[in-house]
Write a structure and sequence with these properties.
Elements lengths: L3 H7 L1 H4 L7 E4 L12 H7 L4 E6 L18 E2 L6 E4 L9 H4 L4 E4 L11 H15 L2 E5 L35 H12 L4 E5 L29 H10 L19 E5 L4 H11 L8 E7 L11 E7 L12 H15 L19 H6 L3 H7 L5 H19 L6
Parallel strand pairs: 1-2, 1-5, 2-4, 5-6, 6-7
Antiparallel strand pairs: 3-4, 8-10, 9-10
Helix pairs in contact: 5-6, 7-9, 8-9, 9-11
């Protein structure tokens, strides 16, 4: 199969509209060709007139480890072009940045989750391109989590840099498809093109990620496909006092970790509360000591998610519900435990981080309400999931 960048490089007719145009590239470390050449190098070698580059959160080089660690603008040492940061002094491209090119190639590998900030970066680029008369091309890449949709819809008024619009946590789209949805939903008048993949089968054996392609971290803590599958659930731990495994070699692949919680007991309580929500993966009790971040230097007990190998069932794995269930079990066993972390999250100062992450307070309120059952959350989410599937049917390209 071919990703969008591979097709653009191998098919001269696709590149022809770029002749005589100044071209910008939005990229990160996973922006590579089939042969692992970075897209910037490959485009320049192909004769494309690249006049600027843009780096999203974590930077063009992907060197910024944590959230809310900004990247400065710089000059590329090889090509002498400006490299603008979209996670530094600004999140939205400025007029000066937009004036650096005529066509903007967006080549970011996504994880298929609303909170992954590359989604919002695409929206901001489309909005600014619409204002300035620029063109945006998405060089499409797979959604490694595949087509499944899960979670409650982001509520009106809850928009943020980790919530670009009313969509569920696990959106099921590629970035090319997401661009079409943004244009339709927000009524944008922008010249937009998708260089579609060739041969991508979202329901094939890789369940989203093609088995013959190498995985490269699109951000420092996105280490493998297991993480990408689990992320729509485990990202919510960023809004909790529990550890998501940052400071270890397997971040965001655990349901939780803490020095004062019995993981085995939590696992048993999860099976008691909603056994069907544990389907599609294996959970394994584990111990880890983060070298930095939450609970640094303390021995934590937790549950590792294995949505991989013989344990993975693409149809039944529902990471958002699984993570909600872990929170619910902890609340049941430790009624007074301070689960929710109160700190500025992605520059949102007036809302709890878990509410920013989940696009509203519904999940937190369900966890904290001792009378609320799995049926209540399932009903709420199912309605939103059905609505979203209906919305996106017209923008699917594969």
């Amino acid at each position: 199969m071919k990703f969008g960048i591979d097709r653009l490089l191998s098919e001269p007719d696709l590149r022809k509209p770029l002749e005589g145009k100044r071209v910008a590239l939005v990229a990160h470390p996973a922006s590579v060709t089939r042969d692992l050449e970075h897209s910037l190098d490959a485009l320049v070698a192909a004769g494309v007139n690249v006049t600027s580059a843009f780096g999203p959160q974590h930077g063009l080089k992907g060197d910024k480890q944590d959230n809310m660690v900004e990247t400065a603008d710089e000059t590329d040492p090889t090509y002498g072009i400006p490299v603008f940061s979209l996670y530094g002094e600004v999140r939205r491209p400025t007029g000066q940045m937009m004036s650096s090119a005529d066509v903007f190639l967006f080549d970011l590998q996504d994880l298929g989750c609303r909170i992954y900030t590359f989604v919002t970066t695409l929206l901001y680029l489309l909005e600014e391109a619409a204002k300035t008369g620029k063109s945006v091309w998405v060089l499409d890449r797979p959604n490694p989590a595949g087509r499944p949709v899960e979670g409650t819809m982001l509520m009106p008024g809850q928009e943020s840099f980790v919530g670009a619009g009313p969509m569920p946590m696990r959106h099921g789209l590629t970035m090319g498809e997401m661009g079409h949805w943004f244009i339709k939903h927000f009524g944008l008048d922008v010249e937009y093109r998708v260089i579609a993949m060739e041969g991508w089968e979202p329901d094939g054996t890789g369940h989203g990620w093609p088995e013959n392609r190498v995985w490269i971290n699109p951000s420092p803590n996105a280490a493998n496909v297991n993480m990408a599958r689990a992320y729509a659930g485990t990202v919510m731990i960023e809004g909790a006092t529990l550890s998501e495994g940052r400071g270890t070699t397997r971040p965001l692949e655990v349901l939780f970790g803490a020095p004062d919680i019995d993981a085995k007991a939590v696992h048993a309580e999860m099976r008691r509360i909603a056994p069907s929500w544990l389907k599609g993966c294996a959970l394994r009790e584990c111990w880890f000591e983060p070298t930095f971040h939450k609970h640094a230097g303390q021995l934590c007990n937790g549950l590792m998610i294995h949505a991989e190998g013989p344990f993975y069932d693409h149809t039944h794995f529902r990471p958002w519900r699984l993570q909600a269930l872990a929170f619910k079990a902890i609340r049941a066993l430790y009624p007074d435990y301070e689960i929710w972390r109160d700190f500025p999250y992605e520059y949102e100062l007036d809302r709890l981080a878990i509410d920013v992450i989940n696009g509203g307070p519904a999940l937190r309120e369900w966890v904290d309400d001792t009378s609320a059952s799995p049926v209540d959350l399932d009903r709420m989410a199912a309605n939103d999931e059905t609505e979203w599937r209906d919305q996106i049917e017209r923008v699917l390209l594969y």
